[in-house]
């Protein structure tokens, strides 16, 4: 197996958990605390990546240039990374400025069956010698055979690795084992995994992926991220070291950052709640959680029903408008008192 690389998306995926309001001070403090601790890269930006700040998916507190510049000024020994989904961002408006701002590593993401949309972006970055990885989002929605086909496309574009994103936290250990083993055997580049924790198994799924050949795990401190959050890097490092797998991480420094910096950045601890569990079971994009809760409150419907319908419709990131449509369809006349109970439950989760 290749040397294990940990990608730290705390300052990217974590933005989802605070409605994209991570401050300049938090970026400074986090980068100073984590610089040189042994993670391969620290990925910074809007939760949906470069160019994604919008009314539809959420406006960033800071523009991406300021986020990247702030991180760059406070990282000396750890790579600065950025994530982009073609359609949200473009080469001219986002990738080129990010390179100028000092970004060294890029993740280019797309829906799990649409690798073709990443070709020009990956090829552009590789021509410039940038460390570039393809990302397949919502990867539970395609068969292992189809995922291998899409990953081979990214490999042909020049990607140094491919990362499966369990965007909905829907993967079971058996699914992880089967698909990672198939990709490891069928590709000549790094295989990575980005687990979400909707069903409480992000760390075990990451560990299973590593056992099957994954050399990249993309996670966050405290599991900070969309929905129930991500693979908690501190837990994973502890498990790996106890299992005799070297990570190259200064574990105490990581724990210090977790204990000293993260409480200032997070509004509440991550973890499973009833909504996140149903979201994972239904296979719904984790970042939909806040949008679903707001729509449920507005229309007086059970958010779990919205999630199940979104799962039935196979909704994907970028289709946030569908949430309101579903909530409106499910709405019922008020008057039996049940709306007040639902609103109370939602208030406790927002």
Helix and strand sequence: EHHEHEHEHEHEHEHEHHHHHHHH
Shape: globular
Q: Strand percentage, roughly?
A: 5-15%
Biggest sheet descriptor: 8 strands, parallel, barrel
Overall radius of gyration: 19 Å
Poorly predicted tracts of residues: 335-344
Question: What strand order characterises the main sheet?
Answer: 1-2-3-4-5-6-7-8
Question: Percent range for helical residues?
Answer: 40-55%
User: Averaging pLDDT over every residue, what do you get?
Assistant: 91
Please give the alpha-carbon distance between the first and last residues.
Answer: 42 Å
- Report the total helices: 16
Output the structural class. alpha/beta
Q: Quaternary state, please?
A: single chain
What is the tally of beta strands?
A: 8
Write up what this structure looks like.
There is one protein chain. Helix 14 packs across helix 15 (321-330). The model is unreliable at 335-344 (pLDDT under 50). It contains 16 helices and 8 strands. It is of the alpha/beta class and 350 residues long. An 8-stranded parallel barrel has the order 1-2-3-4-5-6-7-8, surrounded by 6 helices.
